[in-house]
Amino acid sequence: MLVPVNRILEDEFRKVSTVLCYPRPTDSEVSSRIKELQELGVDALLLRGRTKIAMIPVLGKGHVGVVVAAVHKGREVALKIRRVDADRETMHSEAEMLRKANSLSVGPQLLGRSDNFLLMELVEGKNLREWLGGEMDAVQVRRVLRELLEQCRRLDEGRIDHGELSRAHRHVVVTASGQARLIDFETASMSRRASNVTSIAHYLFFNKENSEAVQRVLGEIDVIGLQSKLGRYKKDPTEESFKEILEYAHLET
After folding, report:
1. Which residue, 133, 210, 223, 228, shows the most beta carbons closer than 10 Å to its own?
2. Domain boundaries, the chain
3. In 151-167, which positions are buried (b, 16+ CB within 10 angstroms) versus exposed (e)?
4. Residue 136: what pLDDT?
5. Which CATH number describes the domain made up of 2-121?
6. How many Å apart are CA 92 and CA 74, to the nearest integer?
7. How many Cβ atoms sit within 10 Å of the Cβ of residue 209?
8. Is 236 exposed, middle or buried (0-12, 13-18, 19+ CB in 10 A)?
């Protein structure tokens, strides 16, 4: 469903106000956010996705925001909308974390931000767990997982901790073209120790379901040896210790 921003208050589309100001819309807040969207250059919302809010499909819903597809200057983008009951007053901190991640070639491209919205590149595909459960060959798995670990390595080097990679199925998308993309930097921080490589490695190789899926394609992994290499990397996160992780995970070139 395509909803022009300038028509959200019309009776035909008024239920969309629940998405724009979830979970407690008021006329004044809806009107204010419509103006904010127009200032960002958002022309319309594209309501689709697996998640539902008041029977309206959206791409996702979390503790801080609701994510929908939108039209911005003729291009489909992702729009993250701050919940009115979020634990933060603006989206500025998340925007800054995403900007820093972008400087490391990680995350969806930040296109704009305001107090209540983040405008980003639209990244669509299968979540990591869905992808791991599909039909894959060793070359594809090795390439995608290595790319994912290398993105996590760049975040570690940039001292940005994503903060949610223990639940990577909600924060990693594998696109139709076979690219691993980290998304959702709402809990990212530079004030705690960055542990992205160790977090994603534990998700992939020490979670029973995920580990079985990976080893079914790449062969048996020495998880005790890998645990030792992760411990070394945690103490001394050098390029050498990172390459040893790739080697033990069968991700070396």
Report:
1. 210
2. 2-121, 126-248
3. bbbbbbebebbbbbbee
4. 84
5. 3.30.200
6. 25
7. 10
8. exposed
Token pair in block for residue 63: 């503790």
Q: Structure tokens of 243?
A: 């390459």
CA 89/CA 83 separation, integer angstroms = 10
Name the token pair of 120. Answer: 């980003």
CATH code that applies to domain 126-248: 1.10.510
- pLDDT, one tens digit per residue, over 12-68 is 999 999 999 999 999 999 999 999 999 999 999 999 999 999 899 999 999 999 999
Which pTM does this prediction carry? 0.93
Residue range 157-214, pLDDT digits in tens: 999 999 999 999 999 999 999 999 999 999 999 999 999 999 999 999 999 999 999 9
**How far, in Å, CA of 202 to CA of 186, rounded?**
21
CA distance 150 to 169: 17
